[in-house]
Write a structure and sequence with these properties.
The protein has eleven helices and no strands. The protein is mostly helical. It has one domain: Heme Oxygenase, Chain A (Up-down Bundle), CATH 1.20.910.
């Protein structure tokens, strides 16, 4: 029987490797924390819009997981209920920062989720039916691990590039998660649910799949911002005579 400490070490090792793979292999993913490349405004703002999208879309998954968890482990559901109630308000923090960039709520809400985000929700919905509430807990484990290990570096980088007022919401989010000890709370729930399932592979398979989905997300984020601009700038321009002919025909 794996102890909680052993489980935590395995999770930490897996996530450290997966996140490092994303940061080092996906174009520009690492520039959110590294000074080697200038922070791309379009990329960063779209990333924050998508953060809001994920918070809202995964709220439904969290609620469905709560209903399942009440039947699976009632004591854990008390913790999960408090955690998910907190998470429901976190989109407001990132909206505050986006407002500093000139993005209205209408702009944020009107932006369709990226394909990778829609695929994430589809996966979570399907996996919830397969293994129960551990699905949503695994997702929270993934994002809380990142909040604990990586998010502060992203916030510091953005503050240096923009200003302190541009990251008030994101910094509040990091502090809130740390002060509420969210990662430890999710680990406690994970330990109980894995023990109930008696199947650690269900957890680790889900975490690996989530890492792949986030890898796809960062690739798409690059493609629709930096990649799209690069493609447009490298497209051959028509010769002057061709432009003149087009103008006459139109």
């Amino acid at each position: 029987m794996t102890t909680r400490s052993e489980l935590e070490q395995r999770i930490d090792s897996l996530l450290a490797g997966e996140v490092d793979r994303i940061l080092t292999t996906v174009p520009y993913a690492g520039h959110l924390i590294s000074e080697e490349q200038a922070l791309d405004d379009e990329y960063y703002i779209r990333h924050r819009i998508e953060t809001v999208k994920r918070i809202i879309l995964t709220a439904r998954i969290d609620a469905l997981a709560l209903a399942r968890m009440i039947e699976e482990d009632y004591e854990s559901s008390r913790l999960w209920g408090r955690y998910t109630a907190d998470e429901l308000n976190h989109d407001l923090l990132f909206r505050r920062d986006l407002h500093q960039h000139g993005c209205s709520n209408e702009t944020i809400d009107g932006a369709p989720p990226l394909v990778a985000t829609r695929n994430l929700i589809i996966y979570l919905s399907r996996r919830l039916e397969e293994i129960g509430s551990l699905t949503a807990v695994a997702y929270s484990l993934f994002v809380e691990w990142n909040s604990d290990r990586v998010s502060a570096r992203v916030v510091n980088r953005a503050e240096r590039h923009y200003s302190a007022k541009h990251v008030l919401g994101a910094r509040s989010h990091v502090h809130f998660d740390k002060n509420a000890n969210h990662y430890a709370m999710i680990l406690d729930i994970t330990d109980k649910l894995v023990g109930r399932l008696k199947d650690e592979n269900a957890l680790f398979d889900t975490l690996k799949e989530l890492a792949s989905l986030f890898c796809a997300y960062f690739q798409e984020l690059h493609d629709v911002t930096i990649g799209q601009r690069a493609e447009a700038s490298s497209s051959p321009q028509p010769a002057p005579s061709e432009r003149d002919l087009h103008a006459v025909q139109s």
